[in-house]
Amino acid sequence: MEKMKPPAAQRAGEPAYGRAKLRNRLGEALTGLCFPRRCPVCGGIVLPRGELICPDCVKELSPVSQPVCLICGKQLESGTGERCGDCMRRPRSFQRNFALLNYNAAARRSMVAIKYKNRREYLDFYAQAVCRRFGRQLLRLGPDAIVPVPVHASRLRSRGYNQAELLAGRIGAELGIPVCSRALLRTKKTRPQKELSPEERLRNLQQAFAAGQLPEGIETVILVDDIYTTGSTLEACARILLGMGVRRVYGLTICIGRGV
Prior knowledge:
By secondary structure, this protein is of the alpha/beta class. The chain contains nine helices and seven strands, in the order H-H-E-H-E-H-H-E-H-H-E-H-E-E-H-E. Helices cover 39% and strands 14% of the residues. The chain has a five-stranded mixed β-sheet with strand order 1-2-7-6-3, sandwiched between helices. Strands 4-5 form a two-stranded antiparallel ribbon.
């Protein structure tokens, strides 16, 4: 995706803006020398410098390709039909989900490193990739806000960050969309979702989320999370947002399981 032009007011003061941009680049270069960029796939130092992922490692990731389910964004096994089996069986409260990658072994290692090994910098690559692939589509939806899926307060304390919120912040900054990090609250610490069936996952998440603070006039929201498995998390969050007066909820995730 092409980089967005700075606002007119910003362009009017171009010399000051240019100096600030130069300072940022110098700061990034110095940071790169002291703390070399690590690859989100192999974990090694990225070469050539300035890139966000090793050229060979990017080949280990599996971008979602057409045809995809028009609701969850999952890659379909054949060109027949417009929805996957999950979305035909289970009505969705969100309009559709945009998914960047199939959840293969390389993506799984990378997501684990982000969530449990403090590799927050890996999100720079994924945010950039999301904006390049879906940026124009997302902007055409006319989103009023980006809302990250929240984590429970106890998990936030132990981990120190919410990866969905960090991802949302990077995407919002690139696309110029406000991020409402307090729109949803995680009120219940649930059992690990990976142990449950799709029906159990949704029941497990009932009452797990609550309405937080959302500015008036928000009608279209992009709901951001790292992984889409069965859609239970997006579904639970979308229901809350719709109950708050939001009219349209779209999902945006880094990874999605292949499933059925």
